[in-house]
Amino acid sequence: MARAGLTAERLTRAGAELADEVGFDQVTVSAIARHFDVKVASLYSHVRNSHDLKTRIALLALEELADRCAAAIAGRAGKDALAAFADVYRDYAREHPGRYTAARLPLDPETAAASAGVRHARMTRALLRGYDLAEPEQTHAVRLLGSVFHGYVSLESAGGFSHSAPDSQESWARIVDALDALLRNWPTTP
Amino acid sequence: MARAGLTAERLTRAGAELADEVGFDQVTVSAIARHFDVKVASLYSHVRNSHDLKTRIALLALEELADRCAAAIAGRAGKDALAAFADVYRDYAREHPGRYTAARLPLDPETAAASAGVRHARMTRALLRGYDLAEPEQTHAVRLLGSVFHGYVSLESAGGFSHSAPDSQESWARIVDALDALLRNWPTTP
DNA sequence: GCATTTACCTAACACTTTTAGGCAAATATC
DNA sequence: GATATTTGCCTAAAAGTGTTAGGTAAATGC
Question: Count of domains in chain A?
Answer without folding.
Answer: 1
